Design the sequence.
Protein backbone atom coordinates (compact mmCIF):
# COMPACT_ATOMS: atom_id res chain seq x y z
CA UNK A 1 0.00 0.00 0.00
CA UNK A 2 1.23 3.53 -0.85
CA UNK A 3 0.48 6.53 1.34
CA UNK A 4 1.26 10.15 0.59
CA UNK A 5 1.43 12.88 3.24
CA UNK A 6 1.19 16.66 2.88
CA UNK A 7 0.92 19.31 5.58
CA UNK A 8 2.22 22.89 5.18
CA UNK A 9 3.71 23.04 8.70
CA UNK A 10 3.78 19.59 10.37
CA UNK A 11 7.03 17.62 10.59
CA UNK A 12 6.46 15.06 7.83
CA UNK A 13 9.29 12.78 8.99
CA UNK A 14 7.77 12.49 12.45
CA UNK A 15 4.34 11.65 11.03
CA UNK A 16 5.78 9.15 8.58
CA UNK A 17 7.70 7.34 11.31
CA UNK A 18 4.56 7.16 13.50
CA UNK A 19 2.54 5.85 10.57
CA UNK A 20 5.22 3.34 9.63
CA UNK A 21 5.05 1.88 13.15
CA UNK A 22 1.29 1.34 12.82
CA UNK A 23 1.37 0.20 9.20
CA UNK A 24 4.73 -1.60 8.77
CA UNK A 25 3.95 -2.96 5.27
CA UNK A 26 2.99 0.44 3.84
CA UNK A 27 5.24 2.58 1.63
CA UNK A 28 4.79 6.09 3.00
CA UNK A 29 6.24 9.28 1.54
CA UNK A 30 5.96 13.02 1.86
CA UNK A 31 4.22 14.37 -1.24
CA UNK A 32 6.15 17.04 -3.15
CA UNK A 33 5.16 19.04 -6.21
CA UNK A 34 5.49 16.91 -9.36
CA UNK A 35 4.96 13.58 -7.56
CA UNK A 36 2.40 11.62 -9.60
CA UNK A 37 3.43 8.23 -8.26
CA UNK A 38 0.93 5.69 -6.98
CA UNK A 39 -1.08 6.37 -3.83
CA UNK A 40 -3.81 4.39 -2.11
CA UNK A 41 -4.30 6.90 0.70
CA UNK A 42 -3.54 10.61 1.06
CA UNK A 43 -3.17 12.47 4.36
CA UNK A 44 -3.58 16.19 3.81
CA UNK A 45 -4.14 19.66 5.21
CA UNK A 46 -4.57 22.59 2.79
CA UNK A 47 -3.44 20.37 -0.11
CA UNK A 48 -2.28 22.00 -3.36
CA UNK A 49 -4.75 21.18 -6.15
CA UNK A 50 -2.13 19.27 -8.13
CA UNK A 51 -1.66 16.77 -5.29
CA UNK A 52 -4.97 14.94 -5.69
CA UNK A 53 -6.34 16.07 -9.06
CA UNK A 54 -6.80 13.22 -11.50
CA UNK A 55 -5.32 10.62 -9.19
CA UNK A 56 -6.61 7.18 -9.99
CA UNK A 57 -6.41 4.37 -7.49
CA UNK A 58 -6.92 6.55 -4.45
CA UNK A 59 -9.05 4.73 -1.86
CA UNK A 60 -9.50 7.56 0.66
CA UNK A 61 -8.29 11.01 1.64
CA UNK A 62 -7.77 11.95 5.30
CA UNK A 63 -7.98 15.55 6.50
CA UNK A 64 -5.48 16.08 9.30
CA UNK A 65 -7.97 18.01 11.42
CA UNK A 66 -11.56 17.90 12.62
CA UNK A 67 -12.97 20.67 10.43
CA UNK A 68 -13.01 20.10 6.67
CA UNK A 69 -14.27 23.55 5.65
CA UNK A 70 -11.02 24.61 4.00
CA UNK A 71 -10.80 21.51 1.82
CA UNK A 72 -14.51 21.69 0.96
CA UNK A 73 -14.29 25.35 -0.01
CA UNK A 74 -11.37 24.52 -2.32
CA UNK A 75 -13.41 21.63 -3.71
CA UNK A 76 -16.27 23.98 -4.53
CA UNK A 77 -13.96 26.16 -6.61
CA UNK A 78 -12.17 23.21 -8.18
CA UNK A 79 -14.32 20.05 -8.31
CA UNK A 80 -11.27 18.07 -9.50
CA UNK A 81 -9.51 18.56 -6.18
CA UNK A 82 -10.90 15.24 -4.93
CA UNK A 83 -11.22 12.47 -7.50
CA UNK A 84 -14.91 11.59 -7.88
CA UNK A 85 -16.17 8.92 -5.50
CA UNK A 86 -13.12 8.95 -3.23
CA UNK A 87 -14.26 9.23 0.40
CA UNK A 88 -12.96 12.03 2.58
CA UNK A 89 -12.34 11.26 6.25
CA UNK A 90 -11.63 13.67 9.08
CA UNK A 91 -10.21 13.29 12.58
CA UNK A 92 -12.76 12.30 15.18
CA UNK A 93 -11.61 13.45 18.60
CA UNK A 94 -8.02 12.04 18.56
CA UNK A 95 -7.27 14.03 21.71
CA UNK A 96 -9.12 17.19 20.65
CA UNK A 97 -12.16 16.54 22.86
CA UNK A 98 -10.04 16.62 26.01
CA UNK A 99 -8.44 19.89 24.90
CA UNK A 100 -11.86 21.41 24.19
CA UNK A 101 -13.08 20.27 27.60
CA UNK A 102 -10.08 21.90 29.31
CA UNK A 103 -10.63 25.15 27.43
CA UNK A 104 -14.40 25.34 27.91
CA UNK A 105 -14.47 24.26 31.55
CA UNK A 106 -11.67 26.61 32.59
CA UNK A 107 -13.34 29.59 30.89
CA UNK A 108 -16.83 28.82 32.21
CA UNK A 109 -15.41 28.55 35.73
CA UNK A 110 -13.48 31.79 35.18
CA UNK A 111 -16.72 33.63 34.42
CA UNK A 112 -18.77 31.74 37.02
CA UNK A 113 -16.29 32.60 39.80
CA UNK A 114 -16.24 36.23 38.55
CA UNK A 115 -12.49 36.27 37.95
CA UNK A 116 -13.14 38.79 35.14
CA UNK A 117 -14.75 41.16 37.68
CA UNK A 118 -11.97 40.57 40.22
CA UNK A 119 -9.34 41.30 37.57
CA UNK A 120 -11.09 44.62 36.81
CA UNK A 121 -11.19 45.42 40.54
CA UNK A 122 -7.54 44.46 40.93
CA UNK A 123 -6.59 46.98 38.25
CA UNK A 124 -8.25 49.65 40.45
CA UNK A 125 -6.57 48.29 43.62
CA UNK A 126 -10.06 47.57 45.03
CA UNK A 127 -10.64 44.89 47.71
CA UNK A 128 -14.31 44.11 47.21
CA UNK A 129 -15.95 40.69 47.72
CA UNK A 130 -18.78 40.25 45.18
CA UNK A 131 -21.99 38.21 45.38
CA UNK A 132 -21.60 34.61 44.17
CA UNK A 133 -23.32 33.51 40.98
CA UNK A 134 -25.72 30.57 41.26
CA UNK A 135 -25.42 27.57 38.97
CA UNK A 136 -29.16 27.75 38.25
CA UNK A 137 -28.52 31.18 36.66
CA UNK A 138 -25.64 29.81 34.62
CA UNK A 139 -27.17 27.68 31.88
CA UNK A 140 -24.59 26.60 29.33
CA UNK A 141 -25.80 26.32 25.72
CA UNK A 142 -23.61 24.45 23.24
CA UNK A 143 -24.11 25.01 19.52
CA UNK A 144 -23.04 21.74 17.87
CA UNK A 145 -23.36 18.51 19.76
CA UNK A 146 -21.12 16.19 17.79
CA UNK A 147 -17.82 14.58 18.73
CA UNK A 148 -16.45 17.70 20.45
CA UNK A 149 -19.64 19.47 21.55
CA UNK A 150 -20.95 16.27 23.13
CA UNK A 151 -17.79 15.81 25.21
CA UNK A 152 -17.77 19.44 26.30
CA UNK A 153 -21.41 19.09 27.35
CA UNK A 154 -20.56 15.98 29.37
CA UNK A 155 -17.76 17.70 31.28
CA UNK A 156 -19.89 20.75 32.13
CA UNK A 157 -22.68 18.49 33.40
CA UNK A 158 -19.98 17.00 35.65
CA UNK A 159 -19.39 20.50 37.08
CA UNK A 160 -23.07 20.75 37.98
CA UNK A 161 -24.17 23.36 35.42
CA UNK A 162 -27.51 23.18 33.61
CA UNK A 163 -26.42 22.23 30.07
CA UNK A 164 -28.30 22.29 26.79
CA UNK A 165 -27.16 21.61 23.24
CA UNK A 166 -28.34 22.44 19.75
CA UNK A 167 -27.74 20.26 16.70
CA UNK A 168 -29.46 19.08 13.52
CA UNK A 169 -30.77 15.91 15.13
CA UNK A 170 -31.84 15.45 18.75
CA UNK A 171 -29.30 13.97 21.17
CA UNK A 172 -29.61 11.82 24.23
CA UNK A 173 -26.63 12.92 26.36
CA UNK A 174 -27.12 12.30 30.05
CA UNK A 175 -28.13 15.48 31.89
CA UNK A 176 -28.20 17.58 28.70
CA UNK A 177 -31.36 19.16 27.28
CA UNK A 178 -31.37 18.69 23.52
CA UNK A 179 -32.70 21.17 20.95
CA UNK A 180 -32.59 20.59 17.20
CA UNK A 181 -33.12 22.51 14.00
CA UNK A 182 -33.78 26.17 13.29
CA UNK A 183 -37.27 25.88 14.76
CA UNK A 184 -35.78 25.15 18.21
CA UNK A 185 -32.91 27.64 18.09
CA UNK A 186 -34.82 30.40 19.91
CA UNK A 187 -35.91 28.05 22.70
CA UNK A 188 -32.27 26.90 23.00
CA UNK A 189 -30.98 30.49 23.20
CA UNK A 190 -33.61 31.65 25.68
CA UNK A 191 -32.05 31.75 29.16
CA UNK A 192 -28.63 30.52 27.92
CA UNK A 193 -26.01 32.38 29.95
CA UNK A 194 -22.87 30.97 28.30
CA UNK A 195 -23.03 30.26 24.58
CA UNK A 196 -20.32 27.86 23.40
CA UNK A 197 -19.87 27.29 19.68
CA UNK A 198 -18.70 23.92 18.34
CA UNK A 199 -20.48 23.84 14.98
CA UNK A 200 -18.84 23.00 11.66
CA UNK A 201 -18.50 25.78 9.11
CA UNK A 202 -21.21 25.14 6.51
CA UNK A 203 -23.47 27.46 4.48
CA UNK A 204 -26.19 26.92 7.13
CA UNK A 205 -24.03 27.89 10.09
CA UNK A 206 -22.12 30.93 8.79
CA UNK A 207 -23.05 34.06 10.77
CA UNK A 208 -25.22 32.12 13.23
CA UNK A 209 -23.93 34.08 16.23
CA UNK A 210 -25.45 37.43 15.30
CA UNK A 211 -27.52 40.15 17.00
CA UNK A 212 -30.73 38.19 16.60
CA UNK A 213 -29.35 35.16 18.46
CA UNK A 214 -27.38 37.13 21.05
CA UNK A 215 -30.42 39.25 21.94
CA UNK A 216 -32.28 36.05 22.88
CA UNK A 217 -29.62 34.97 25.40
CA UNK A 218 -29.89 35.71 29.12
CA UNK A 219 -28.78 39.19 30.14
CA UNK A 220 -25.08 39.48 30.99
CA UNK A 221 -24.35 36.45 28.83
CA UNK A 222 -20.96 35.26 27.58
CA UNK A 223 -19.85 33.89 24.21
CA UNK A 224 -17.12 31.31 23.75
CA UNK A 225 -16.27 30.69 20.10
CA UNK A 226 -14.20 27.56 19.63
CA UNK A 227 -15.26 26.51 16.14
CA UNK A 228 -14.72 28.93 13.23
CA UNK A 229 -14.54 32.71 12.98
CA UNK A 230 -17.17 32.91 10.26
CA UNK A 231 -19.82 31.69 12.70
CA UNK A 232 -19.64 34.96 14.59
CA UNK A 233 -20.64 38.38 13.27
CA UNK A 234 -17.85 40.32 14.97
CA UNK A 235 -19.59 43.73 14.69
CA UNK A 236 -22.73 42.30 16.33
CA UNK A 237 -20.60 40.91 19.15
CA UNK A 238 -18.99 44.30 19.77
CA UNK A 239 -22.38 46.02 19.74
CA UNK A 240 -23.77 43.53 22.28
CA UNK A 241 -20.71 43.93 24.52
CA UNK A 242 -20.97 47.71 24.41
CA UNK A 243 -24.72 47.71 25.08
CA UNK A 244 -24.16 45.47 28.13
CA UNK A 245 -26.23 42.57 26.73
CA UNK A 246 -23.05 40.50 26.71
CA UNK A 247 -20.69 40.59 29.66
CA UNK A 248 -17.73 38.95 27.98
CA UNK A 249 -16.43 36.85 25.14
CA UNK A 250 -13.55 34.52 24.61
CA UNK A 251 -12.58 33.86 21.03
CA UNK A 252 -10.18 31.29 19.63
CA UNK A 253 -11.11 31.66 15.97
CA UNK A 254 -11.65 34.65 13.69
CA UNK A 255 -13.01 35.45 10.27
CA UNK A 256 -9.47 36.57 9.39
CA UNK A 257 -6.53 34.67 10.87
CA UNK A 258 -4.12 35.87 12.08
CA UNK A 259 -6.46 38.48 13.55
CA UNK A 260 -5.30 41.81 12.04
CA UNK A 261 -3.62 44.23 14.46
CA UNK A 262 -6.25 46.88 13.72
CA UNK A 263 -9.17 44.69 14.88
CA UNK A 264 -11.04 46.34 17.78
CA UNK A 265 -11.35 42.88 19.36
CA UNK A 266 -7.69 43.09 20.48
CA UNK A 267 -8.36 46.22 22.49
CA UNK A 268 -11.77 45.39 23.94
CA UNK A 269 -11.37 44.94 27.73
CA UNK A 270 -14.00 42.20 27.93
CA UNK A 271 -12.79 40.11 25.00
CA UNK A 272 -10.17 37.42 25.59
CA UNK A 273 -8.30 35.94 22.65
CA UNK A 274 -6.28 32.84 21.86
CA UNK A 275 -4.71 32.23 18.42
CA UNK A 276 -6.69 29.19 17.13
CA UNK A 277 -5.22 26.76 19.63
CA UNK A 278 -8.33 25.46 21.39
CA UNK A 279 -7.62 21.93 20.18
CA UNK A 280 -4.66 20.99 18.05
CA UNK A 281 -3.98 17.80 16.13
CA UNK A 282 -2.03 15.33 18.27
CA UNK A 283 0.13 13.25 15.90
CA UNK A 284 0.22 9.93 17.81
CA UNK A 285 -3.54 9.83 18.41
CA UNK A 286 -4.32 11.03 14.90
CA UNK A 287 -2.07 8.35 13.39
CA UNK A 288 -3.73 5.67 15.51
CA UNK A 289 -7.16 6.76 14.25
CA UNK A 290 -6.04 7.00 10.60
CA UNK A 291 -4.22 3.64 10.64
CA UNK A 292 -7.17 1.88 12.20
CA UNK A 293 -9.48 3.48 9.62
CA UNK A 294 -7.19 2.36 6.77
CA UNK A 295 -7.14 -1.19 8.13
CA UNK A 296 -10.94 -1.21 8.32
CA UNK A 297 -11.27 0.19 4.79
CA UNK A 298 -8.86 -2.42 3.46
CA UNK A 299 -11.06 -5.11 5.00
CA UNK A 300 -14.12 -3.64 3.25
CA UNK A 301 -15.59 -2.34 6.52
CA UNK A 302 -17.29 1.02 7.05
CA UNK A 303 -15.36 3.03 9.66
CA UNK A 304 -16.68 6.24 11.19
CA UNK A 305 -15.30 9.67 10.35
CA UNK A 306 -16.39 9.92 6.71
CA UNK A 307 -17.43 13.42 5.71
CA UNK A 308 -20.80 13.86 4.05
CA UNK A 309 -19.82 16.13 1.16
CA UNK A 310 -23.40 17.31 0.62
CA UNK A 311 -23.97 18.20 4.28
CA UNK A 312 -20.51 19.79 4.48
CA UNK A 313 -19.30 18.09 7.68
N1 LIG B 1 -10.62 25.96 17.41
C1 LIG B 1 -10.03 24.80 17.22
O1 LIG B 1 -8.87 24.63 17.58
C2 LIG B 1 -10.79 23.68 16.62
C3 LIG B 1 -12.02 23.88 16.06
N2 LIG B 1 -12.75 22.81 15.57
C4 LIG B 1 -14.07 23.05 15.00
O2 LIG B 1 -15.05 22.28 15.71
C5 LIG B 1 -16.02 21.83 14.77
C6 LIG B 1 -16.83 20.68 15.35
O3 LIG B 1 -16.06 19.50 15.39
P1 LIG B 1 -16.72 18.07 15.71
O4 LIG B 1 -17.46 18.12 16.99
O5 LIG B 1 -15.67 17.06 15.54
O6 LIG B 1 -17.80 17.99 14.54
P2 LIG B 1 -19.03 17.00 14.40
O7 LIG B 1 -19.30 16.86 12.94
O8 LIG B 1 -18.81 15.77 15.19
O9 LIG B 1 -20.24 17.79 15.10
C7 LIG B 1 -20.91 18.82 14.46
C8 LIG B 1 -22.19 19.13 15.21
O10 LIG B 1 -22.80 20.28 14.62
C9 LIG B 1 -24.16 19.98 14.32
N3 LIG B 1 -24.60 20.72 13.14
C10 LIG B 1 -24.04 20.75 11.91
N4 LIG B 1 -24.75 21.53 11.08
C11 LIG B 1 -25.79 21.98 11.80
C12 LIG B 1 -26.89 22.82 11.50
N5 LIG B 1 -27.07 23.35 10.27
N6 LIG B 1 -27.78 23.07 12.47
C13 LIG B 1 -27.64 22.54 13.70
N7 LIG B 1 -26.60 21.74 14.05
C14 LIG B 1 -25.70 21.47 13.11
C15 LIG B 1 -24.20 18.49 14.07
O11 LIG B 1 -25.52 18.01 14.22
P3 LIG B 1 -25.88 16.45 14.06
O12 LIG B 1 -25.14 15.75 15.20
O13 LIG B 1 -27.34 16.38 14.23
O14 LIG B 1 -25.36 16.05 12.73
C16 LIG B 1 -23.21 18.00 15.12
O15 LIG B 1 -23.87 17.84 16.35
C17 LIG B 1 -15.16 21.49 13.55
O16 LIG B 1 -15.95 21.47 12.38
C18 LIG B 1 -14.13 22.61 13.54
O17 LIG B 1 -14.58 23.68 12.75
C19 LIG B 1 -12.27 21.53 15.64
C20 LIG B 1 -11.04 21.29 16.18
C21 LIG B 1 -10.19 22.34 16.69
O1 LIG C 1 -8.93 20.44 13.44
C1 LIG C 1 -9.42 21.56 13.20
O2 LIG C 1 -10.48 21.71 12.57
C2 LIG C 1 -8.74 22.74 13.69
O3 LIG C 1 -9.29 23.81 13.69
C3 LIG C 1 -7.37 22.54 14.21
O4 LIG C 1 -6.83 23.66 14.74
Sequence:
Amino acid sequence: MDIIFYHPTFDANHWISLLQRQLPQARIREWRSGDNGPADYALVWHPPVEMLRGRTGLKAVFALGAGVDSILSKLKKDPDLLPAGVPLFRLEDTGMAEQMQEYAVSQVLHWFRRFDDYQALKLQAKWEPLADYEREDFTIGILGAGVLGGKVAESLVGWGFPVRCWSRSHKNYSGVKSFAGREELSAFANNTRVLINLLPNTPETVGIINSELVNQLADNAYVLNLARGVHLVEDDLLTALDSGKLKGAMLDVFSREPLPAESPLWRHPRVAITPHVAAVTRPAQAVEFISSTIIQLDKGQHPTGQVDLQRGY
